[in-house]
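User: Can you help me understand a structure? I only have the sequence.
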Amino acid sequence: MQDIVDRAEAKMKSSIDAVRKELGSIRTGRASPALVEGLHVEYYGAETPLKQLANISAPEARTLIIQPYDRTGMAAIEKAILKSDLGLTPNNDGQNIRLTIPTLTEERRKDLVKLVRKHLEEGRVAVRNVRREGIDHLKDMEKAKTLSSDDDKRAQERLQKLTDTYIKQMDDIGHAKEAEVMEV
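Assistant: Let's start by predicting it. Here is the structure, written out as tokens:
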């Protein structure tokens, strides 16, 4: 019984981490290396994450500088940035690629808030699915007579408390991200 609850908690934590990662890649008008480090670049025939090909820094609030370790990959990095849905235009000076983050319009901010809410709902669904899997497993154990109905109820209550806790954490993360996106 405890093992089921522990596994469910580990899966819920990974759901939170996945949502944090997704929300970190949403552009807020502020330069953040997380914005581009997950981009995949076609580099010598292999899809490689940008963070493995270059040093990414944010020297100013609205500027990202990408310093490739190998200058022969600059064209591929530029192509990947242009192909992405970030809406950014790379500026290549031969040594570095500079990305200037434009200010967001009100309409774009509202679209980004919708995107944040969509990612949050996907995270909530993932947490609820983990709870459902745990409850199904507990019911199977009860049917097999390896778990009493009282223990089953207690474990289900613990799963519900865990679910509530992680959904609240997810909501807090989402509210913070929404505030960050709407900040002018």
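Now, to help you interpret it: Residues 106-143 form the longest helix (38 residues). Helices lie at 2-24, 50-53, 74-83, 106-143, 149-182. Let me know which part you'd like to focus on.
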